[in-house]
Queue: 4 jobs
Job 1
Amino acid sequence: MGALTSARRANPRGRRPARYAIALAIAVALSLVLVASSILNYVYLDTVAGRTSLYGLLAVALIALGTFIGVRAVDRDPARRRRDFIRAAVLLGLAALLWLLLIDVFIFTNAAGPGVAAICALACLPTTAFGLWVVRRIDRNEKEPWRLVLVAAAWGAVVATSLVIWAESLWQEIAIRTLVPGPGFDVSTAFSAGILEELAKGSAVVLLFLVMRNEFDDVVDGIVYGAAVGLGFNFMESIAYMTNLYAIFAPDGVGGYAAGFQWYARQVLGLFFGHATYTAFVGAGVGIARQLPTTRKKLIAIAAGFLVAIAAHFAWDAWINLFPIEKNNFAILEIHLRTLIMTGPFTAAVVALLLLGLHIESQALADQFRKEAALGSGAITPDEVPILMSPWRRFQQRLRVLGRGGLRAYIRLARLQAAQVDLAMERWHRERQEVDSPLEVDQEMRRQVIALREQFVRVISGG
Amino acid sequence: MFAAPLDQVRTLYRTLLVFAAVSLLILVAGLVEFAYFEPPGQHTGLKATIAGVYQYDPDHKTTVGPDRTSFPRTVQFAAVVDWSTLPKNVVVDARWYDGFGNVVGSVGPATPDQLADQTIVPVKVPPGFSHNLPGHYVFVVERYEGGVPVEVIGRRVVLVER
């Protein structure tokens, strides 16, 4: 993305697109909802969650500030960019720690203790990290920057969970006081989880789409960001359930078992089948909207993504009792089958969208590689086209270079290939009239590619 | 205006719309289920008298001490209902739900007369456990219609401490 961002800098925009104003409006609205609901919750419900949400505002503010600085850094010169990224990382880290601390102190620590909470968090870290690694890897043509994938996950873990704690507490409180306990109540709770959690998580994907359009190319990117938000949410929810159930069952000597079961159900079995799948649909809707020609279709696509996400989430929460787990030798098999039957079709649907998206993206890039090579600009040569068209062949070429020129040569070639893919992607969007940047951007990107090629040649020739 | 890839994106768009249509059916099914178990227009204004929630002595099957809103998990407790205040022709039951939504104690469904000697509704400790699980417990007195509980006519929430 280096070439692209430099090119953006080389062609300053006269006026920011309207989508920035929409993003700002959404961010302000979310902040107001956070503040208002936390105060209302605290004053009227006086629950533990209410206190947490009020005190958690500082963590939410740190996340918002860190995200803003991190995203803004992309448009900065290298020196300021580095400084801004460090600031953003520190703020996000502080926010995450503060939030974990609040969760532990105000909700579970009294019962489960900080040691148990820390163990639960540590147990969820490797699985969530693996999930994020896999999700990022599936974008085989152009991997999304780690900073944005992690920002998406952080939003899911901290901001989205904060939003839903308050809203779901209110919904639950009203439902307990007004509904007949039983299936109707369960359906109400499922609507609450499906609607509120998907809106909270999906708002992160929408904001990324509005603010980071350059890193949001198509349905594949949308699925990656959506799944990352879902994995972040799943991380925090897993810790909450594990510590809570540990505290409930520990006096009977089965606290560890209860927490361990939650870990397996949410961090292994449900890692990709739960929140990651749901929010990936929001991302898919936004990603498809990115490439649609009219505002009406864009809005329909985004709404459709949210609708599928809400329905998938709702179906799991509302009808999980239709598949009761018997206490016998087949229980472990039944648990897996239940997940496969209830969430499997939705995961299969999102994978179908992903594969179709990858196919479209690969075809379009191949077409653009060929057109750029035919142009004779020197950014992409005809003999590079078959290599660039195949992620596997690109990797093989980098491996060969690693053997010849070491890690430095490998990194230089990786940057060159990434810049060439960026150029092809930019050409694709321009051909489809999906970019608001001036035509000079393409020319600047070509200059960047040629400069990267010269650097690579110098490294490989020992210069 | 657009090149060939547009058709492919349109395929994606249409696929998503198909998924959305199925999703809409799922959500409508949810609403129908909700309406079945929470039928509108069932509010009768009927009120069951819940005398209170008290510590329970299982050996003598009696309640002890004052009305309370929270209990330690080691203490057993029960709700006391005055069935005599309800009309004789309604079908009612009373249930305790634990924090996980499981029924952990109930009487009925039956008419108030048939329940007259079951005024105490204790919470049962779940099998395999020595004490109640902590959390919020909800006690409800429900009115039945067509074999399904349709209205809550009395409700108490108590906390079982950790």
Job 2
Amino acid sequence: MNRIPVLRMGRFLLVTVQMDLDDSTAAQLEEDLTTGIVKHRAEGVLIDISGLDFVDSFIGRTLVGIASSSRLLGAETVVVGMRSAVAITLIELGIAMNGVRTALNVERGMELLSGLVGGGRPGDGG
Amino acid sequence: MEISVSLSSLLEEHRDELLSDWAEALRSATTRRADLISDEQVRVEAKQFITLLARATRTGTADLEGSDWDELRGLLGDVSRSRALAGFTPSEIATFVFSFKEPLFDLLSKAAADGGNAQALLADNWRANLLLDRLGLYTTEVYQSAREEIIRRQQQEMLELSTPVVKLWDQILAVPLIGTMDSERTQVVMESLLEMISETSAAFAVIDITGVPTVDTLVAQHLLKTAAAARLMGAEVIISGIRPQIAQTVVQLGVELPEVTTKASIADAFALALRRLGWTVSRNEKA
């Protein structure tokens, strides 16, 4: 089974999806991320999906699920680099991904994430 | 349906007689359009029609799609198209074929009277009748498909013309929408806007609907979809150019545009986008 690596970068976790996700890989990613947030006391998660050019409703829901559970664990999620075809597909599927923050590329996503968690919770980390 | 082979020889033998009868019928027909086409031209076409009909019926197959009928179909196609362009109505075009019935039936009954077989006359008459009906309908089909082709081409041209995405400033795009929005156009707008967003790394896209005559629930929904898709890519959509009547209509329809920023004019939307990106516009003191 493919496994998407979860990288730690300071206070954030970084995930780069470079291939099309299948259901089990997506579910595994969700699990890895949530355990990773707790383990590293992360305050933010950045998911780069610029390599993803195929989505279905399950992948869409998984992304929403990751964002919701991260928030419960005290971390903000930003999804970056979504392709236009993917965005259209998700909208047509009726998955508006409310509650998931988005940015155009990794750089802007990092800015957004830093802004979101910037002033918060000094020292306690979660 | 089989065609009696004798029809072919009959047509060939009596061609000149048929032609003069038919030309007479066409001249006196109420659908004659001497202003659009000369009698001489009609006569040439009628002569070709009889020749090709005789050739096509020689083999006895009545399948109009068959290769025996290629030439006749080609002639009728040309006749129908050129007359459609000249401004004929479909019934005027079809009458060209239908008016051949009378001279043909006269001929058939004369031939049957010589042979003295009333039964055969009825059968031949009926077959010829069916055949001419189908040929007449074929001209209408050609007419219609020619029209549809024109409509399709115009639609395509309109689609290409009407959806420019322009760059207003670094990271700010604008789409001035003009004309009625249907789902096909919205799709094109959405795709080209999202393409441009990822190409130019734009953070804001202003959709200006000053040129959209009416906004109904469907259009509103399309706008929302576009805004949501842009948001997924990390850009924000501002809708501008909502005229007072349209604002009232939208409210009366009960449509809400949640999570989408709206502004009255494209200037306001542009100013908002500049402000959000941290720009300030200031005017130089006059020297």
Job 3
Amino acid sequence: MTDSSTSGQGQPPVLQVRSLHAGYDKLVVLSGVDLDISRGEWLALLGPNASGKTTLLHCIAGLLVPSAGSISICGCSLRQDAMGAKGQLGFGCAPERLPGLLTGRQCLEVYAAAKSLTTIDADVLELAEAFAFTGMLDRFVASYSLGTKQKLAVLLALLGEPALVVLDEAFNGLDPASALVLKRHLRVRVSAGRCGVLLATHALDVVERYSDRAVLLLDGRIARVWSREQLAELRAMPGEGLEAALAAASAGS
Amino acid sequence: MGVPQAGSLPAGIPRRLARQPHLAAALLRWRNAYHLRRARFLSVTALALALVSGLLAASSTGRVLEWLAGNPVITFAISAGLFGLSAVRRQARIQADAASSWLSALPTMSSPLIRLALGTAARFLAVLIFVGLAWVVGRVTAAAAALLVLVTAIGMLAGTLGGVRLMGGAAAASPGWHYATVYRARRRWATAPSLAPLSYWPLAQGRFFSRPKMTSRVVLLALLSIPAGRYDVPGQVALAVAAGCITLATLLSLSAAAVGVAGGAARWLAPTTVRLWTFVGAFVWRVAMKQAVILAVVILLACAVDYSQALRVGVKVSVAFLLISCAVSSAACLWACNQTGLGAARRGA
């Protein structure tokens, strides 16, 4: 099964993945993934553990070279024009990958400079304030809790008004108040057409309430796609809704 | 279909280790490492064997061993110092494990004493085998070898007991948790984002590497190898040599930190548009500056002793060291960028 975006509006999709194959040495993780995300769309990437979600995100971030297939970000091929593609990308790295021996402020400054920004975006600073992160800015990242590292990873991803925001389990470790702040912030960005969001997650409430579409990745292939309307139907259903649909789709495959 | 039966211990692990999960886990870790990276494992073993063979073949090894046997007080001091340090470190690791290990919640008594004794015994066995081989190949006499083993054993006992006693008090006094505090925190934003703070990462790692805890072995060996008062070595020269060792350890720690951290930094910044040489420059320059400052201070101090010699030799050695250090750090950055795709205009074939 392939996924294709419904809201093209004449612009190239912010993310276009075609026939993507990737793996580690002899281990094949992704085999023939197709994915589109438009500006103003929030796509949730679902799947059981070891289904290839993080591998897909790493391919999109250019951290892993796919064995076949293509990835374009805002029309820039990651293979032909890596810098052009990365210029439109905001990638939330895993919290454990953050530099433990820099302070949060230094991380933001370095990352902003690495994205060729002249200032740190005001709304990222506002989000930091809303996260109650400002007090942590001058401490070493190594002393942060998981949730605090997660906040920093998200702030880094949102620097520079990226057209495509890619987040991996971004709500892991966040306290409920901060999680709500982040969901609303992303929703505002997406609704204003400022970016498209690709979020790999197991948090089904985020998928039901905030995502525009959801795809299920099973054994390195896209096994099921839920449209905005189908997600709305699942939300309206009493009981388990998406959880049951997800279990049925996983079992069916 | 019934649930398959599974044993409670992996195959090949002795049953008596069921009550020693730390040892069982360590054994499995070694076994898995061997299966996973057999080539690397065997090449490291071959290298170690080659090194030992080379040492045994060298005639100076015999002279050193004979000298050590002839100076039992120094041998005892070296043995006690090294085994004491080892005991302190091992016990610190055991205490840290007790607080953070995935096995610490198990209802088993994993005896710290056994873990401590095994590590010490393994080190002593290595010494025993080396001295035994030296005796077999005729580098040292039987009497000298026996004396050397005996003095080392006594030093081992004294050092280990001292180390255990030292750490026992420290453990009771404070838990092993601490939060690092930021040195000279800047509580406002820079006028413009800059890659400059990136260079603090290898510096901080270098400080971590050159902590007394990490360099104590090198410094201890250096101090013990200076027979102050013998062979007309004045005290100030002995001190200068010790200070030189500490300085060299600091300089090398900075280079090692730059090499060690380059991969993590490149991976972190890989999804951005930072250019290859901008990254390399930002990463390496402060390490090089710090090393240059240290070397300049050393040359200045040496000038007080011998002005012309310090300038003639010191400047040449310093420049060579800086060039080599920069080249090695830059090579590590370039390799890391190549691995992660940082700064690459194209990614993939």
Job 4
Amino acid sequence: MLTMRQHWKRRLGVAALLLGASLACSPPEHRQAPPPPDAAQFDDRTPEDGGTVVLRLDTDIRSLNPVFINSVYEKEVASFLFDGLLELDQEGRVIPGIAKSWEISPDGKAYTFHLGTSTFSDGTAVKAADVIFTLNHILHDSPELSGAFEGMQTAGTRAIDDQTVQVAFDKARAGQLLAFGTAILPEHIYSKGDFAKDYAFAVTGNGPYRLLRRTAGKEVVLQRRGDYPGKKPHLEYVMFKVIGDASVAWDALRRGDIDEMELNSEQWTRAQADAGFQREIDLRRFYKLGYNFIPWNTRNPILADKRVRQALSMCLDRKSIIQHVYGGTARVITGPFTPDQWAYNPEVPPVEFNPAAAKQLLSDAGWRDTDRDGVLDQNKLPLEIRMLVPSGSRTSIEQAQIFQDSLKQIGVKLDLEQLDNATLIGRVTQGKFEATFLSWDLDLDPDLYALFHTDQIPPHGQNWVFYSNPEVDALLVQGREAMDQKQRTVIYQKLHQILAADQPYTWVLQESVKWASNKRLRNVKESRALGPFFWVPGPRDWWIPTPFRKRELSASR
Amino acid sequence: MVAFLLRRLSTALVTLVGICAATFVLIHAAPGDPVDIYVASLRSTSVSPEIARTVRRIHHLDRPLVIQFGYWLRDAVTLDFGDSILEPGSLRDRISRALPATVLLNSAALLLALLIAVPIGFLSAMRPRRFLDQSSRLIFFLLYSLPNFWVALILIRVFAVRLQILPLFGMTSDDFERFSTAGRVRDLALHMILPVVTLAYSQLALFARFARVSLLEETHKDYMQTARAKGLAERSVMIGHGVRNAAIPMISLLALTIPYVISGSVVIEKIFAWNGIGLLFIDAVLSRDYPIVMALAVVTAVATLTLSIVGDVLYAWADPRIRLGAGEVGI
């Protein structure tokens, strides 16, 4: 599964605030927080329970019903409230969740899960019927998750007993198991009333935290469940603060009002140079699954020729872009997989910046400047391409200008058209574009069917570049059906190679996540694939030594 | 008077429907479709076309535009603005939460600007081109030229980060619910200081200049000369006669300014995380969430039209020479 994240993208900003605002309102003698001992020197070998962590949301959440959530922030909050049938570990491997064990039938079509002793926050046990209830709602109501359960058979999917569930599919799919990370809802509560409207913020989950309160546009507060049957997390309260503006969030982090946030390249560079900042804040940088790319509309007569696409890719000076636009905090990628995926083919070289070779390639393809106007042409058609640039994205605009400049030197005219995101998405999904800047968030399974299979050409799917290659189609089908990972690795490495040669996208770079967290937070670890959240134990292992605690929240309301 | 009001009300009603229709057409004509945007923001590669179709059907997006407008108008007359396309929860609730926040913030800013600017404007008019006039002009125009997002960030740096005497963002503290009434008022007031100052400073120039010009225009009128000839002190001529008359055009200015109090300020609301109409509106426009855009258009249009009528009435009340309506001319 992949996500289109535009460049204006909501950052996976994550941060935390404690009594920040209230500090200012206390009597003057309490205005300063008690002088904390040096955060770095405190003994942090023995985790202590209690304390409040404050995370940043850069947009408010719209729902906490797992069937309807879609933003990364909603998922982040929900990950504290709900446990899935299965969970992921730090390496992105599947581990037991509510299901303590599971079997897959030899034909790969049926999954049997054996539930452990999980309870909802109202005290009732999670039963097989709840799993069936949730899966049915996902299949019928969830725009986002239903795709992952495509081909689920309602007849073969049933509760064998209270502790055992069987889920059956029309056909075997290699990445299917990963879909079972989905949250499970209590049927006896969510079956009453209007499922779509009544449970947006009335949450009964089975996760380690319960929802204490949510104030629209302001905050979400969670409290640790005393009756959670699994391993309890250390932090008593998790508070999410909505702060839309990145500069304000930065100030809030410095003041200690929030405990963490994602930084942009500019803030990262500033933080690197600031020793005072680094005394209190940990900085880390990691790559998640995702990349930025330039899609080429292969239905366009000019761009249909893969030599043209290859030549254009050769004119994108990625090293310079990484240095100047991203302050060195990104890396070049070679194709549709990132180096952290098993599907990645290390043999595929990156496209080197080489305008001279690009010009030669275009000349071989018949593009020459016959009318001496400085722009290459062929049959009176000038080599001119219009690129849509999201107007809110400074990085996209700068990259486009660097690209435009290199292309001009070999006689290719790149026209830039800035559009707001809504318009840009509209143009791309309708195929009314030649080139643009987009980025994908990748799912753990490397299945690329939705992006490059001929069946997925709009309006059926997200093959927005209208790419069609019978060899690729065949490999894509084999890749999602083969159950053996070794076999799949061969298939996907082959796909990596073909796609890199065909360049339906120019694979630009992988931006790193630049993350800052307050040093009072202990035992913070990130997963290469998932970041700090969305894996177990993840934030469940975080703790704050007592001397660094600020004021405890009240449990009232 | 009654005839005038009826006529004005009926024109206002027609104007309102016109504004709604125009907004409706414009927002639908804007490229990009809410369902496409929604689908593109999802994480699934195989979004079920079935669900996209359902969303379209519920919101009548699959019908011709005229029919869609008909549906909208039918619901709107009962004050039912429908549900947001993208978000669960009642739209009316969201607007009724955001509206007071915005009105509170902007009316405080307007009041502050008026309290500072109008007296200074009048004083400047009494002694034109003297120190107060020149210096206030310089300062107000300097302030006017400063971009407000920049000023907001500077104020935050100074008062919230360096001095730590004011809150950084938000409308209330974490523990707001537990405060006493007095504590709540204090807490809210502290949170309002920076955004109110940011919103107010740029309005000073307009109000001060307007007040100054209004009073200056009165200075040489016959009745003022008469008053002076009667031997009244210049001070009482100005305050007793001039200021009273100069206040009349201020009413029109206010009637035109107040609608902005309702529509909110996107930039300031975003920076200070002030959960008001401005933020709601810009998010809705950017995601093409038609029902929200339309509901806010109605709210703003109704406010503007109402205030312009109220302005006319007040005008007539303040200046008896003005007669409302053709039927009353010459009486």
